TrEMBL record:
Keywords for this protein: Hydrolase
Species of the source: Ziziphus jujuba
Gene Ontology MF annotations: hydrolase activity
Gene3D superfamilies referenced in this protein's UniProt entry, alphabetically: alpha/beta hydrolase
Protein name per UniProt: Alpha/beta hydrolase domain-containing protein VTE7 isoform X1
Stretches assigned to the AB hydrolase-1 domain: 90-322
InterPro entries hit by this protein: AB_hydrolase_1 (IPR000073), AB_hydrolase_fold (IPR029058), Epox_hydrolase-like (IPR000639)
């Protein structure tokens, strides 16, 4: 039993916060102060159809920065949201889920800035809004190297690396390869026990592309949003589906996704017990995608971790309960406690 395995650890603390509409109410004034800007020209034109104020505000702040590829002289213009401030404490670097973008952080990002944190929201290579016209390999090694080169060029200090869902596997993989770059980790509803992309890596390319086209479809994305969130309205689900799907309209998206799928994906479960950094494990109480049992297993196996459970919340607490997540990240970044 997990309870027995974790008998030496304190039980996870339950964080009770308002529902979605209430938790976002405190952001209204901040959103109204930021509105009225223009979208960067490299975003798909469908960004104009998004109604979510926080997504529109953050989309207006997305920039592309040159990131060198490995030892070559060529660069990728890589998409991210840059911080407005530089803090004396460790910068916070926000990753995102599988097949997503920095827009996941639309609600929590301004709260992290209000807390005085130097926050970067970074698009993982092969997803997001980078310029990948000259498509590089999008396997795990390439994603890892790209993140390292980004860190080396722009962040340059040990960071608090935040990974939701598959982003937690990205964070663990990176921290094991470049421990000097990672001071602490925050892992949110972490998907870290899957053995890569499994049989999908063996699919013929024509079938892989057909599957990826299905992944792009509105019905599948809409259903994924129903699973990911806990009791949001139909209108909000539709709009958040458009937000989550926006990056898949980039011209290189299908090729990059097939490249990742065929490469085998992330398999970090053998590395978890070797992680040396302090880690905060955050779990949504009603996550329908990553089980509570898996989250407890991660909490038990990480050598130096604490766990917080967010009430009345699904798979993406940083979208659904941004106040809770921003406070937990800020407290962990500043004080090692929450």
């Amino acid at each position: 039993m997990m309870a027995f395995m974790c008998s030496a650890r304190p039980p996870p603390q339950l964080i009770v916060q308002p529902k979605v509409g209430e938790s976002l109410r405190g952001l209204r004034g901040l959103a109204s102060r930021n509105g009225g800007g223009e979208f960067p020209p490299f975003l798909p034109q469908e960004v104009e159809n998004i109604r979510d104020t926080y997504a529109r505000n953050l989309a207006q702040r997305i920039v592309r920065l040159p990131v060198q590829i490995g030892s070559s002289e060529s660069c990728i213009m890589s998409s991210c949201v840059k911080p407005l401030i530089q803090s004396e404490i460790n910068p916070v670097v926000l990753l995102h889920c599988f097949d997503s973008s920095c827009l996941e952080w639309r609600c929590a990002y301004p709260l992290l800035e209000e807390a005085g944190l130097e926050a970067w929201a970074v698009d993982i290579l092969g997803w997001g809004f980078s310029d990948l016209e000259m498509l590089p390999s999008c396997n795990v090694a390439s994603k890892r190297d790209h993140l390292y080169q980004f860190w080396k060029s722009y962040i340059k200090r040990p960071m608090v690396l935040v990974g939701p869902s598959l982003g937690a596997a990205v964070a663990i993989d990176f921290a094991m390869s470049y421990p000097q770059a990672v001071k602490k980790m925050v892992l949110i509803n972490a998907s870290v026990y899957a053995e890569g992309t499994g049989n999908m890596a063996k699919l013929p390319k024509i079938i892989a592309y057909a599957g990826v086209s299905l992944l792009k479809s509105m019905p599948l994305r809409f259903y994924a949003n129903i699973l990911a969130f806990n009791g949001i309205s139909l209108a909000t689900t539709l709009d958040w589906t458009n937000v989550g799907r926006l990056h898949s309209l980039m011209p290189w998206w299908e090729d990059a996704t097939v490249s990742f799928m065929k490469s085998g994906g992330y398999n970090v479960k053998a590395q978890i017990k070797q992680v040396k950094q302090k880690a905060l494990v955050i779990c949504g109480e009603h996550d329908q995608i990553v089980s509570y049992k898996q989250t407890m297993r991660l909490y038990c196996e990480l050598p130096n971790s604490m766990m917080r459970l967010i009430s009345d919340c699904g798979h993406l607490p940083h979208v659904e309960k941004p106040n809770s997540v921003a406070k937990l990240i800020a407290d962990f970044a500043y004080f090692d406690c929450c």
